[in-house]
Amino acid sequence: MEFDSLTEFDKELERLLRKYRSLNADIDLLRKYLRNNPRGNPPIVVRIPGLGLETEIYKVRHFRCKALKKGSRSGIRVIYAFFPDNPKITFSEIYYHEKDNTDCDKERLKNYFD
Question: Which fold has domain 2-113?
Answer without folding.
Answer: YaeB-like fold (3.30.2310)
